[in-house]
Each structure stands twice: as structure tokens, then as C-alpha cells.
Write a structure and sequence with these properties.
Length: 362
């Protein structure tokens, strides 16, 4: 009789633990967001001491540029079909660099397969699956840090299920689509039927938008442009339409949903800094390559000049640290594509322009 009682007591402790954690998160977020709100509302002209030197906190003085690897998995294989390196510089200017899922990485094959292979390796070692995903994200961040000659400070991975839930938690987003999307794939339970123009997206529709590629002439690059439209709309919704309690709950829900090697204090700090970003100047850039068939697979070989430009945008001191061997091998067709000039100029589109004028997708 004693053992069942002990089991019952143990089950009661677990919810209490999560309640305490949740309250701590909410308290931290409240402090961070209220501090930011008060700072934004301050009117220097009404402050008698406005001419006095600014008193920065130690935390503000020590803020550095940070790069975070953002990953999104597909429905079936667990491959990371969304690969973005997001950067906040010292002034909290935000830049997001999208890397094609089919990017060729020499001995590792397509870049999007790196993550599931790492998960499988850790799982085989007996690591619990959620921890294996966290470690695989960390390894992929380390791999790209070395390959591009930059520092990536952490990784965040989200599944499609959690993506749908997060969009629904903010009651959807409003976007302007440049063309209608009409596509069905029963094998992946993917059904996309969206009209052109102003559209309100719930979680399922948003999933369709960010996953669809076959409706664009430029395939995966068209999909990355559609993701720019969605990310712009989502950030705008979070920044302008959510109440303080809703904003706190969204951050808590996100932290609980994703697999990440970022600590809770780091997550809260990044959320605070992201809220400071100037919406109009948030930049999006896609790394573009050439299609080359390697071992029967269609891969994207990214030219060295394009990789160097992306690395510099993400804080590389110079292009000399680029590990060219990672993105090319001895195959003649790969070498030719790698050393050829850029397919297109590496340039940024900005959230303010996308929000105001839309974005054409081919």
C-alpha cells in the first residue's frame, strides 16, 4: 500500500515544478518587456535631466552581436528544410540569411540531411530523442560556424506541429500573396489552397505557405521568398497587435515548444533584444546557387563569392576563414559551379518594404 502512495505523491510534484518554472519565466519576461516599454515611452524633452550623460546598465553595455541558427523540420524525414542564420548586431539591427536546403556540403551531402543524421547518431548512442535533437542542432550550428568562418551562438529547432500551434496562438497572421497556391500532396498530408491578395492565415494555412515550392518556377527559392512574407507578417503581428500578457505567453509557449541549446536567461534576453529591432530595416537575404547532380541527387552548389558575402553579412572578419572544402569537392562539375561567379547578387529585402509593397515571387 505504501508504494502506490509514493507514486501518487511523485505525480503531484511534477505539475508543481512546471508551474514554478512558468511563473519564473513570466516574471522575467514581465520585467524585460516593461523595462523596454518604459524606455520607448520616455520623452527626453520632458525630462529635466535629459542633458545628463546616459546611464547604461552593465547588461546593455556588454551586449554583443549574436547569431542564432533557426531550423524547421519537414513532415516525414526530419530533414531541416528551413535553415536560417539570424543575426542581431550590437545595435539590435536584425538580419536573416536563408540557406537552401539542398546546399551541397561535400562529404556530408545535402545540408538538410545533416540534422537527421546527427539525431540518428545520438539516438544510437542511447541519448533520449529530445536531447538528441538539441545536441544535433548544436552540432549543426558548430558545423556552419566553422564552414562560414563565423560565430553561431545557439540553435533553435521547431517542428511543423509546433509551428502551426504558435501561429494559432496569435490568432493567425495577415499576408498579401503575390499569386494563388493550389497544391495537394496526400503522402505528406499537405493541402494548400490559398488565393492571391489579402489572406488571413491560420496555423494550417501558414504551414502550407512556408512549405509550398512546386507552385513557383524558382522552386525552393520561391518558397524562401514566401517565408520572407510570412516572417514579416508574423513579426508585425507580435510587435504591434499582442497585449503584454499575450506576448509573455507567446514567448513562454515558444520556449517550451522548441528544441534549443539556449538557456532560459539567454532566451529572455534575445526576446527583449528582438523587440528593439527596427521593423522597417529587418533584412532577409537568400543564398543562391547552381543546380548540379551529385550521385543522382540534385544539389545546390553555392559559389564561393556568394558564400563569402553571406559570411561577411553574418559578422565574419574576412572571407579568408571560409572553409571552401566544406562546400565543394574534387568533382569537376562541383568545382566549376563553386568557382563560377554568383548566380545573383547577394542582397537584402527589408521587412518595411515587404509590408508596404509586397514581394514578387517567380
Amino acid at each position: 500500500m505504501d508504494k502506490p502512495a509514493e507514486g501518487k505523491k511523485s505525480r503531484r510534484k511534477k505539475p508543481l515544478f512546471f508551474v514554478i518554472i512558468s511563473l519564473c519565466v513570466l516574471a522575467a519576461l514581465t520585467f524585460s518587456i516593461l523595462t523596454l516599454t518604459a524606455k520607448n515611452k520616455t520623452d527626453p524633452s520632458a525630462d529635466p535631466s535629459a542633458d545628463a550623460p546616459a546611464q547604461n546598465t552593465e547588461e546593455e553595455e556588454e551586449e554583443d552581436a549574436v547569431n542564432i541558427l533557426l531550423l524547421g523540420t519537414d513532415q516525414v524525414s526530419g530533414c531541416t528544410d528551413v535553415i536560417i542564420v539570424a543575426r542581431l548586431d550590437k545595435d539590435n539591427n536584425a538580419s536573416l540569411v536563408q540557406i537552401p536546403r539542398d546546399t551541397y556540403t561535400g562529404e556530408y551531402g545535402k545540408l538538410n540531411s545533416y540534422f537527421p543524421k546527427a539525431v540518428a547518431r545520438y539516438t544510437k548512442m542511447g541519448v533520449e530523442r529530445q536531447e538528441a535533437r538539441r545536441l544535433a542542432g548544436r552540432d549543426m550550428a558548430t558545423f556552419l560556424s566553422s564552414a562560414l568562418g563565423i560565430t553561431i551562438d545557439g540553435s533553435v529547432l521547431i517542428t511543423l506541429e509546433d509551428f502551426r500551434s504558435l501561429v494559432d496562438s496569435v490568432r493567425g497572421v495577415d499576408v498579401v500573396l503575390p499569386k494563388a497556391l493550389d497544391y495537394d500532396d496526400d503522402g505528406q498530408d499537405l493541402h494548400i489552397h490559398l488565393k492571391a491578395g489579402h489572406v488571413h492565415l491560420d496555423g494550417k494555412d501558414a504551414e502550407g505557405l512556408v512549405r509550398c515550392r512546386s507552385e513557383y518556377l524558382t522552386a525552393d527559392y520561391g518558397r524562401m521568398d514566401a517565408q520572407k512574407i510570412f516572417l514579416t507578417a508574423f513579426y508585425k503581428k507580435v510587435r504591434t497587435s499582442l497585449s503584454l500578457p499575450s506576448l509573455m505567453m507567446l514567448t513562454l509557449r515558444t520556449w517550451q515548444a522548441v528544441s534549443t541549446d539556449l538557456s532560459l536567461p539567454q532566451t529572455v534576453t534575445l526576446a527583449r533584444r528582438a523587440l528593439k529591432a527596427d521593423f522597417s530595416t529587418i533584412g532577409f537575404a537568400s543564398v543562391k546557387g547552381r543546380s548540379v547532380r551529385v550521385n543522382g541527387q540534385s544539389c545546390q552548389v553555392i559559389p564561393e563569392e556568394t558564400l563569402a558575402a553571406a559570411a561577411m553579412a553574418l559578422g565574419a572578419a574576412n572571407a579568408d576563414a571560409l572553409a571552401s572544402g566544406v562546400f565543394a569537392d574534387e568533382r569537376a562539375e562541383v568545382q566549376k559551379a563553386y568557382h563560377a561567379g554568383p548566380v545573383a547578387a547577394f542582397s537584402f529585402s527589408y521587412a518595411g518594404e515587404i509590408d508596404q509593397n509586397g514581394l514578387e515571387i517567380r
